[in-house]
Task: inverse folding
């Protein structure tokens, strides 16, 4: 496949699961379903997100883990290939896509919210909204103060 054909094909495979899109990143592409990062494409290979609960399914199906070389070592991350037949149709991809979406949802749920990561920003947010609302409020032609 040409460089941009695989991301298009993969978004078609994931389309039954939600709003699927691809985005260029790190010399490859990221695949999102409903703005949830569920897969990556690197060197014309699709890798789906996996975690401790889903890894065994990918291993049993003969999946290969995503590995890349850093400056001084090889790094493995929680993304796995799918069986070749899953690449043939959205119906065959769906069980694998469900596993990737479930893993991505668990990962998202385990991350602290922005309020916990940056308490100052969370505290300032209501004040900023109030200032913005006041600035957007319509102003009268005349002052309501008594003279």
Result:
């Amino acid at each position: 496949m040409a460089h941009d054909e695989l991301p298009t094909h993969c978004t078609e495979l994931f389309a039954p699961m939600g709003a699927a899109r691809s985005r260029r990143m790190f010399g490859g592409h990221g695949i999102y379903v409903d703005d949830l990062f569920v897969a990556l494409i690197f060197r014309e290979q699709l890798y789906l997100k996996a975690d401790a609960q889903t890894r065994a399914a990918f291993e049993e199906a003969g999946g290969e883990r995503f590995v890349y070389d850093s400056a001084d070592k090889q790094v493995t991350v929680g993304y796995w290939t799918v069986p070749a037949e899953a690449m043939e149709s959205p119906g065959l991809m769906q069980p694998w896509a469900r596993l990737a979406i479930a893993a991505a949802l668990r990962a998202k749920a385990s991350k602290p919210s922005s309020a916990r990561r940056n308490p100052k920003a969370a505290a300032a947010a209501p004040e900023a909204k109030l200032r913005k609302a006041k600035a957007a409020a319509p102003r009268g032609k005349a002052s309501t103060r008594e003279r």
